[in-house]
Amino acid sequence: MRFQFALTLQAIWTGMCHAAMQHYPAAWGHYDVCKSQVYSDEGLTWDYMACQPEAADMTQFLKVSLDPPNITCGDPPETYCALENPYMCNNECDANTEELAHPPQLMFDIEGRNPTTFWQSTTWKKYPKALLVNITLSWNKTIELTDDIVITFESGRPEQMVLEKSLDYGRTWQPYQFYATDCLDAFTMEPKTVQDLSQHTLLDIICTEDYSRGYVWKYDKTVRFEIKDRFALFAGPRLHNMASLYGQLDTTKNLRDFFTITDLRIRLLRPATGATVVDESSLSRYFYAISDIKVQGRCKCNLHANSCVFDKEKLSCECEHNTTGPDCGRCKRSYQGRAWSAGSYLPIPKGTANICVPNNIGPVIRPNVSSLGVANRKEVAPQVALSTAPSVHAANSKRARVCDNELLRCQNGGECVSNRCSCPASHTGLLCEKPRCESELGGCKGPESGQASLRPPSLCSVLTLLLAGVALWRETPRRAAAL
């Protein structure tokens, strides 16, 4: 009985250990650490890494404006038809009565209230003149989108609509996506979906009919701009290969700009009618109403900050790496010893910080990697800890390929010969920073490596061995009796 109990315990514990050792997405995917202290031959120094803020709900930081400014219903008060029953037209919108008002702020309030809160436009009383509304969301800051943009309509979804973006604070606009019940008729574009896109056509502007059909559908009121489906073209259907996505974002400027905005504009061009013709005898049936807008993203800090603050109604990055500016887009005044550049996602997993260096230190030589692919970038940009270089250069020198005996010295007994490190037999790498056993069979923990494992046995392993010993001890008297 005791033997069976011991075996049961062992099976349970083995299962728990196996679950604990499952592979989950690593924390490096967030690039959430800008620097860390490391011990080197010269003592405690800084190791710099690329970093970015966590993703957040960006609607809490925006300003919203409507054009025309008097397009919101309620001034003067007017009646409109019920959302669920377009033939029941005794509902009232009154801007001076809180319970009957529908201001634009209700597009961003807390959802889940009953009754639902929403912004609402005036009705289409001036038909056949078009009922046009521009809703502009402004951050006064560059934002990187990380999830789908989702617009939830309380009315029927528009029959024609355009989502636009700006990268220059609203001075110029470009379309993100067109939406229509009939793309050919509305925009002379063939209808497509995001599933029709490929890695080569990801930046194409499409018109979709997926989000425009139907007058009022209780459980289908959203209009989406699919960000994650576009990410999946590089990272896989479940975004399991984020390294591939980060590599593409790092090497393809247009791709990174595609997901970057300072402003969004929703252009509502034609309300839902639910029919082929407009019923001119009941124009109060036609209007726009939005209960929620979701925009998930992060402040763009050029991989030089892991936090972004909202102060005095303005977002700004808390810059590291001797950078400054709202987007960490330039070097501090005393740190312009080399030209500013954005941080790099490569090499995975920590990236390259590209920190700004003091004015009295010359530029660090870097390789020309413009013609290299993502895979080669990882090879020519190894992540090395330069223990003998000044800490201010540690992050930038990860891309260096040469030694100069002054700023970039060979490590572990290597000698600098013609700007290349001649390494001892025990080490390899551009700066002799890697033990040679890492590339051998079994690695540095193999029996021929000469290096013992520095990792103590895990708690799971120790307890599993103990339980096995208990089971063997319980079984021994039984075997002896049998003999």
Describe the protein.
The protein has 483 residues and is α+β, with helices and mostly antiparallel strands. The protein contains seven helices and 24 strands. The protein has helices at 2-20, 183-187, 228-235, 242-251, 253-258, 374-380, 459-482; strands spanning 35-40, 43-48, 56-57, 63-67, 78-80, 91-93, 119-120, 133-145, 149-153, 160-166, 174-180, 207-208, 222-225, 260-270, 289-294, 296-299, 308-311, 314-317, 323-324, 330-331, 415-417, 420-422, 427-428, 434-435. Strands 3, 4, 8, 10, 11, 12, 14 and 16 form an eight-stranded mixed beta sheet that branches. A four-stranded antiparallel beta sheet has the order 7-15-9-13, with no helix packed on it. Strands 1-2 form a two-stranded antiparallel ribbon. A hairpin with a 5-residue loop joins β23 and β24 (434-435). α1 (2-20) packs antiparallel against α7 and α3 packs across α4.
